[in-house]
Specification:
eight-stranded mixed sheet, alpha+beta
């Protein structure tokens, strides 16, 4: 199991069993992750997404599950699960879609940017991934757009239904995100 680390976070890809456990209120994530899971980690949209992810993972080879599952973002200092992020399947034509969410009590502190940056770095180390997209960012969700801007993603379309973003290339090198995070 690939565990990714940042200065403040640990990112753990959830197995099928661990992902399914998030759907049971009050159930801790198995596999000895030991993170405290609050009731606000899985809201209604996340619950729907987890169900879809579980369906996709049932049909995918286990070695591809990291592209379908949620990665649990754990704040190292508190050992508390503060968010879920991940991709929406395998890269298609080299491009993969990212999604992320941070619990309300941990928002506004750069965790989404830090976690997404590290996950993108991981994806870019995989030969089949050459670009990242974010599709359908809800209109008026300025905090999410700021995350994408900080990651160096480019706005490609904005409509009344949402905005779409892209990041092409093999790394985030030179975009300054890491420097801003380390300075924070």
């Amino acid at each position: 199991m690939a565990i990714l680390q940042t200065a403040r976070l640990r990112l753990i890809p959830l197995s099928v069993d661990a992902l399914a456990a998030l759907l049971i209120p009050g159930t801790d994530v198995p596999e000895g992750m030991g993170a405290a899971i609050g009731p606000d980690l899985v809201d209604s949209p996340a619950e729907r997404a987890i169900r879809i992810k579980l369906e996709k993972m049932a049909d995918a080879p286990p070695e591809d599950h990291v592209w379908w599952t949620y990665w649990l973002a754990i704040e190292c200092s508190s050992n508390r699960a503060i968010g879920l992020l991940g991709f929406k399947g395998l890269p298609k034509g080299g491009t993969v879609e990212i999604g992320y969410g941070i619990v309300p009590s941990a928002r506004g502190r750069g965790f989404a940017t830090e976690a997404a940056e590290r996950l993108i770095e991981w994806a870019n180390s995989e030969p089949r991934c050459t670009g990242i997209i974010a599709v359908g960012v809800a209109p008026g969700n300025r905090p999410s757009e700021r995350v994408l801007e900080k990651l160096g993603m480019e706005l490609v379309r904005r409509s009344e239904t949402g905005s779409d973003w892209k990041l092409e290339g093999r790394s985030l090198t030179g975009r300054g995100t890491r420097d801003r995070l380390e300075a924070a």
